[in-house]
Structure prediction request, 269 residues.
Amino acid sequence: MKISIAQMDVRLAEPAYNFARAEEMIRQAAAGGADVVLIPETFNTGFFPKENLASYCDRDGAEVKRRMGALAAELKINIVAGSVANVKPDGGIYNSAYVFDRQGECIAQYDKTHLFSPSGEHEYFKAGDKLCTFQLDGHPCGLIICYDIRFLELVRTLALTGLDVLFVPAEWPGLRRYHWQTLTSARAIENQMFVAACNSCSKDTGCGGTSRILDPWGEVLAEADDSEQIISADLDFSVIEGIRRSINVYRDRRPELYDVRKRAAQITE
Prediction:
């Protein structure tokens, strides 16, 4: 499987431009032989215009489904369509990701579960309450969004379903590039899976780029700088079998020790 990441310079509050640019970069990646293309978080609006936010949003994913679904079917590729600022039928604004297969079918969607309170995301968006797993070309995959990666319990819960690949669209600031690199590497290593992490390089919002694709050893297969570009890597899934045979952390887990409520009860007894 060849994964490509389209590291976009997402413009704040310019959905028409951003959709067009995303489509252009996806076409470039497909021409390069990509099986899967990943684009950034809130690629329609940037992260995020606080004034009149709803006016820039998608409506229950209608635009992303129409445009990205058609593009996936036309190019016969899988598209992990980052996420969009999205007004859902309950009237709430969500940070919503959508996944499309080679036939253009929307096979998964995910509403960001951990909202970035330091930026006030929780004041403008509603949090999702469901996890996201799906299959691309027969390989089990999972999806989280940006700030979610700081919550190791979330990623391990997904990993325990047997993931081969974790996709991470983001709008991560350049000021915390070291955290971005460290956390993406850690999640690949500790869960023994591939991680494809797509950041924006938005000049409007100070995002730092450095999109990366990592193997289950934490080795960097491809990494961007801080400019708009496409990076790609071919995934060798036999690596997963090898690492889990030689260092089988899943076999050696002690889940009976990890129940925080149970341990707290024992301490207070």
Observations:
- The two ends are 52 Å apart (CA to CA).
- DSSP finds nine helices and 14 strands in the chain.
- Residues 150 and 169 are 13 Å apart (CA to CA).
